[in-house]
Design goal:
A: Heat Shock Protein 90, five-stranded antiparallel beta sheet, 5 helices, 35% helix, B: alpha/beta
Chain lengths: 139, 104
């Protein structure tokens, strides 16, 4: 079955452009006629991933594949990595600085929201190498 | 309640009102964006004092009906530009968040 492949570069430490990849994916799904409630789940999960790369990793790449029945999103960065993934997955745990908190982030809900709003969630991380998150949502 | 009725009740200043005057589904109060994204109902009025560009991104992605900046907090330049570009309704009221939200 044919699919739609999209790739986005996410700039690090830039809150003005943050969310533009998620917004483009949202608009694409809307054009494809995907149900609004599903689109919202995808948009929120992907935006959280984008923000994580903006805040923690100096940016990264978002690779999106849209099929007839689902969307796959891979968020890949070469940031510092996560030493303890189970701790990072806990709601309320955050390593964000005060400056980031002033931006409205750092609630420790990023990864939990990504898991909550997707049907499949996978995370791989190596300290000093980077982090890759894979998400899938079925339509 | 429609956005235009909310504007009247809150004696709010309209910063951006590009979309159709929609029916508001309810309200959500908060400044931490991940909470708002995860929990605010679709088409709700979002009461906040957060005034940067991230507010527009969250409002667009989470299908917020109208952003209500409380305590007379003004949008910063990036937010102002972003709400107009993304066609997001944004209003400013002098009321504190609690007082504004209980008027819905």
């Amino acid at each position: 079955m044919s699919s739609l492949h999209l790739e986005f570069d996410v700039a690090g430490n830039n809150f003005v452009s943050a969310g533009s990849a998620s917004n483009e994916v949202k608009l694409t799904l809307k054009k494809l006629g995907v149900e609004p409630a599903i689109i919202r789940k995808v948009a929120v999960a992907m935006y959280e991933g984008e923000i994580n790369m903006v805040i923690h990793a100096g940016g990264g790449k978002a690779i999106v594949d849209i099929f007839g029945d689902k969307i796959d999103i891979e968020l890949k960065d070469s940031g510092p990595g996560i030493a303890d993934i189970s701790l990072a997955m806990k709601e309320g745990y955050s390593t964000a600085t005060d400056t980031i908190r002033e931006q409205g982030f750092g609630a420790g809900m990023g990864l939990p929201n990504m898991k909550r709003y997707t049907d499949e969630f996978e995370i791989e991380s190596t300290v000093g190498v980077g982090t890759t998150v894979r998400l899938a949502v079925y339509f | 309640m429609k956005i235009t009725e909310l504007i009247k009740i809150l004696d709010a200043k309209v910063i951006s009102m590009p979309q159709q005057d929609i029916e508001i589904s309810g309200g959500y109060c908060g400044d931490l964006l991940s909470f708002v994204m995860g929990r605010a109902p679709e088409k709700c009025a979002w009461f906040t004092i957060m005034n940067n560009a991230n507010v527009a991104a969250v409002a667009a992605l989470a299908d917020i009906g109208v952003v209500v900046l409380c305590e007379n907090v003004q949008p910063d330049g990036h937010l102002l530009k972003a709400v107009k570009n993304k066609e997001i309704a944004l209003i400013v009221t002098a009321l504190p968040i609690f007082e504004a939200a209980r008027k819905i």
